[in-house]
Design a protein that fits this description.
Elements (H helix, E strand, L loop, with lengths): L2 E5 L2 E4 L4 E8 L7 E7 L6 E6 L6 E3 L7 E6 L4 E6 L8 E8 L2 H5 L5 E2 L3 E6 L1
Parallel strand pairs: 2-11
Antiparallel strand pairs: 1-3, 3-8, 4-5, 4-9, 5-6, 7-8, 9-10, 9-11
Length: 123
């Protein structure tokens, strides 16, 4: 059974930083495209970032470009989301996702989803 377990969420003031981690177990991590989605209260889940299996290519939603950075450590089956200059509008539950298709991942059709971790940014 494939499991994605996120950690690192919490409460932070605007302008602060957080680093989310997601550990994958139950299948080969190296050939998975990984990413992050988020869901704000009362809103639909939205794509945040993705990274290729090798880590050589990254993709970001426009509102987080220049502030968020996605990376991965294949030896640790872990993907990270470094979030800087956080804004109140970044408040959401953040979900780690993984799959074999970048298109499906960015469209919300990932094969695998974590349970989510809450990020709250106070003004």
């Amino acid at each position: 059974q494939v499991q994605l377990v996120e950690s690192g969420g919490g409460l932070v003031q605007a302008g602060g930083s957080l680093r989310l981690s997601c550990v994958v177990s139950g299948r080969t991590f190296n050939n998975l495209i990984m990413g992050w989605f988020r869901q704000a209260p009362g809103k639909e889940r939205k794509f945040v970032a993705a990274i290729s299996w090798s880590g050589s290519s990254t993709y970001y939603e426009d509102s987080v470009k220049g502030r968020f950075s996605i990376s991965r450590e294949n030896a640790k089956n872990t993907v990270y989301l470094e979030m800087n200059i956080l804004k109140p509008e970044d408040t959401a539950v953040y979900y780690c996702v993984g799959g074999s298709s970048l298109y499906r991942l960015k469209s919300g059709g990932s094969d695998y989803w974590g349970q989510g971790t809450q990020v709250t940014v106070s003004s």
